[in-house]
Amino acid sequence: MPRLDISLASVEVVAGSTPALRVVRHAPERATDWYEVVAAAAEPCLLVDSDGLIGAVSAAFLRLFGFSAAEDVLGRGLLDDLVDFVDFSAGPSRLETAELERIPPLQSLRSGGLARGLLRVRVGGKVRTVDAVTTPVRVDGQVSGSLTFFAAV
Known about the structure:
Elements: E1 5-7, E2 22-24, H1 33-40, E3 45-49, E4 54-57, H2 59-65, E5 84-86, H3 97-100, H4 104-111, E6 115-123, E7 126-139, E8 142-152
Antiparallel strand pairs: 1-2, 3-4, 3-8, 5-6, 6-7, 7-8
């Protein structure tokens, strides 16, 4: 099936006119092409590379999870005690390794497909529940990372 990527171009809108969409016939050439896009996103989102290391986060991601600066998370692994992924019990316990492999950002890396799930995350003693929706990032047809959007629940 043919693939078509669409991006919105910055245009000057003249009163009474409708802005046009610009069709881009190529995908980003490198996963790093996504870093700037993710960092500037209004939504809480996270980009990890194929090794599960955090390459980019949005300011909204930092606010949602209570981090003060991107430098606190960039280059770190999702499972490097940055946050605790916990279960949904009344007294949240840390997830086991087998369960951690199924969190959406890592599941999408492994499967090469979309992933979604509810997560409970403990950061600095505060537990947050989020909905996570993840898509793999492909470069030259190969999964080179994953992009996850979060919504507080």
